[in-house]
Amino acid sequence: MATQFQNSTSENPEGLKTEEMILNMGPQHPSTHGVLRLVLSLDGETVTHCTPVIGYLHRGIEKILENRPYMGGIRYMDNADYLSPMLNETAYAGAVEQLMGIEPPRRAQYIRLITNEMQRIASHLVAVGTYMLDLGAFTPILYAFRDREGLLEMFEEIGGSRFNVNYMRVGGVLHDIPVGWLQRLETWLDNFDKSWQELNTLITGNEIFMKRTQGVGYIDPEQAIAYGMTGPIARASGVRYDLRVNKPYGAYHDIKTEMVVREDGDAFGRYMVRLYEMRESVRLIRTAMAQLPGGPICTRTPIALRPPRGETYFAVESSKGELGIYLISDGSEYPWRAKIRGPSFVNLQIVPELMRGHKMGDVVAILGSIDLVLGEVDR
Amino acid sequence: MNIGFEIVHFVVNLLFFILLISTNAVIMVYAERKVMAYMQDRIGPKHYGPFGLLQSTYDVMKLLLKEIVRSRDTDNSVFIVAPMIFFAPVLTAFVMLPFSPFVTQSALATGLILYVALSSLDVIGVFMAGWGSNNKYALIGGLRSTAQMISYELPLLLALMGPVMLTSFVSHGGVGSISFTDITHAQLAPSWRWFVLLQPLGLMIYYICGLAETNRAPFDLPEAESELVAGYLTEYSGMRWAMFFLGEYGNMLIVSAVATVLFLGGWSGPGADLAFWHRTVTANPGGIFSVADIIFNVIALFWFLVKVYILQFIFIWVRSTLPRLRADQLMQFAWLILIPFTLANILITAALLLAVPQPYTLWVTGIVNFVLLAFFIGFISRAIGASPKGELPPWVKMRQQNLARQAAISAVATPRLAKPESEPEMARR
Amino acid sequence: MDLTRNLSPLPPAPIAPAVTPPAVLSNMPALEAAIGQSIPVRLVAGNVPSLDIAPAHLVAASMFLRDQLGFSLLSCVSGADMGDHLQVVYHVRNLETNWLLQLSVAVPTATNEVESVMGVWPTANWLERETYDMYGIIFTGHPDLRRILLDDEFEGFPLLKSFRPTPLTRHDPATTQVSPQQAVAGAQQRGLGPQRAIPNILSQGESERLHPGTPTFGSTQFHGREFPPQTWKHLQGPPPAENEQKPR
Predict the structure, then answer these.
(1) I need a labelling partner for B305 at 20 to 30 A (CA). Which of A368, B44, C122, C156 fits?
(2) Which residues contact C221 (CB under 8 A, 6 or more apart)?
(3) Which range of residues forms the domain containing residue B359?
(4) What is the tens place of the pLDDT at every residue in B121-148?
(5) Which residues of B touch A (CB under 8 A)?
(6) Which CATH architecture has domain A61-373?
(7) Phi, psi values for residue C209, rounded to 5°
(8) CATH architecture under which domain C23-140 falls
């Protein structure tokens, strides 16, 4: 981070000297969603160059995972993308299961689906809410957090904790569903239908919001694929890629997901994809609740998990995109290598491309539409 | 002239204005937090005093006791003077506002011009703050604010032309007035002829420009906390920051008060109008302090403040609903939408006032203006581009057309063309 | 405790489909013909074919995979320390057929260099930078190979198994964590003796590693290797300064 950022100066025919201004956005800044630092070269209010500087939140999760037993690593996955811990845990547990050839019981897979979709709703709510806050609207984030609160309370009931739930286990889940939980979830879903409508009415048709987001940060489908975009960003550009559909895992084999795809490719399209994915998640949860089978919630696994020597790559559709875990086992209790393919990290790459030529006000509009979580970028 | 009356008049007004400015900020901070809280499904401040009523008092105490921090590299004199320059015009602008027949410090004949002049003085304070802070965020904020306030001066002034023209028609001599007191009286003469009924478009545009002048959402770009950390306020703290803060809320009050005077009939209302007809009260303002006089003034003041606070409530309402515009869109809105509409409004109103024969003049003017207002609102929502649910945005359609064209070309002519070896350059819009 | 409305017995069939050899393997002869060398293919867990590609053929194979076989999305680039050598693993996807392919490239120990695939998949930019950051593998042809997550002044490559963290500070450790020397002393006090206590910590088998529950830092686990004594120097604190005045 000792790289020098040089001002570029230029002189016009009249001999007037102008200088590009270099503006440091972050690491402490309200709208960089954590500790991202953007070094912007500004020509007036137009961004001529943007350099993201990351690593302020690097905790070495991959190194930590190498030094924890397989079961103990699940807890550290919570901290990677701290807005969707359930999905992270599912990815890690699923990778270990794939390595060991374990198939979780159906009930566990359904519970995983339900919690994952709840987590996706929670994460998208934060994404939409904070995006509107970046654009200067105060109210949607409070509506979003009000609804998310109900989800977190249900996580607390089922896993004992609101954020770092530590709920998934290799071979299943930790606890069965407590008494009355499904009824409460149903009530919440019914309420959320109204809240969703409310959010939609409040934001979607708003002229200022449309003017701020339409045509801002446009990504081609080809560009999206070339830059490795996944998740809502790719789907907003018209790339039909959703791991729940393309490569189903767990209960997604049973319950078919309908992909939310838009052709816009701009910030508005990304917002719309997130908004409608919440609705799709609600449908998935309802279906899974209706079909929820009985039976055990976890296979019997040895206390000390020793997967056979080998490697595997397991990816789930996280709320930000493809969350992949690449595991190498040397046959001992600890993973030899655990690589986290964080979607936010890959999605952040395109930001310099998108910023170029946009106005200063669009910087936050683009950054918010990418929906970064710095815990996952820096790991 | 009764010297005693003059002294009492001055003292009462001075006390009233100073108390109003300082309490208005406190009331508005509390109201803003509470109203926004209820709009956002939460409770808001509740710990200090009943219903959190003392919250803003505590805030003021905190601001007064806070250390005033100044960074080493500020341009010292500019930095220190800026808050005062921002705050002084706000205080001065209260001189010509007629809160009631008695609570009017000066019935200036040039009230409107003075108000516009004072409100444009604020720009200097803001720009000095942005420059003197020696901070990039503050500089950008200051520049944005300067551009914004200067641009919105024009439609603001032009939107106020409508009522002035109406006064020239309404008053019997045929001579209009730009004095606030005269404009209020023009709306009283036969009761309930408020200019909002004749110039709703003027009120609408004036209010929008007022939002921009006071740097309130959705025009709060100079201090957009998500882009520029706090804009020109970034380096300020303690009482200097509070001066800006007070000035901002004072500006809101003035904008609302001017809108009240020009469009909503000033202090007229049930009771106040009745008293106005009794010429015993106002015919002799320098005369005796009768009980009727005092009651009448209190009622007038009440109606004025009610209207002002309703308008300020709309400030809060707008803030909690709308996102923020971008800088260039803000300018486009002022120059390409607001100014043409105000100019058209002036032309149409003037033409109608001249052309339409007497008994129908005001009716026709009012109805035409309401039609214009509807057209204005429709135009704003149309000027946006693609609709959320409708068809694809133009750039996507263009891209699809290009792809189809390429496919057609390649279907005809490509068998001979080899695939390019190198990576094709990424098409950027 | 069970509150489902549907207490049907377990379904007989598991959810995952039956394992069939991936269809992508039928295209391997074309790939081998394109780069002119046979490629060993193995199936890793999860039924994903893994190709062991020589470093010299990486870019050619990538171009072929992207242009001819439609592997347009590079999902992941991971480095791995395999003990005697480093390796870079690429996971690529075909979005139309949903194929997933793993490419393993063993990094030559002498040069520690692999050619960059950034020209094939632009997304490799940061992924390769991260791999360089963590493993020190140099991607030739990468335009901007700098550290990305760690500080520019950071020394060493932390995910290497040979990485030894240098202590940044000389503060005393937290009270619950004691150095092995102290642990030995404690064991002696309990009458176990050093011969018993040291093997417990150090002499585990080659494949075994320290259990994290042992009272050490996470950063000082040595996988069956010699315990370097200088590692613990920082735990003993600085030598007491002479004429040190205690603050009142």
Answers:
(1) B44
(2) A67, C209, C210, C212
(3) 70-378
(4) 888 888 888 888 888 888 888 888 888 8
(5) 36, 39-42, 136-137, 140, 144, 217-218, 220-221, 224-227, 229, 319-329, 380-381, 384-386, 388, 392-393, 395-396, 399-400, 426-429
(6) Orthogonal Bundle (1.10)
(7) -130, 175
(8) 2-Layer Sandwich (3.30)
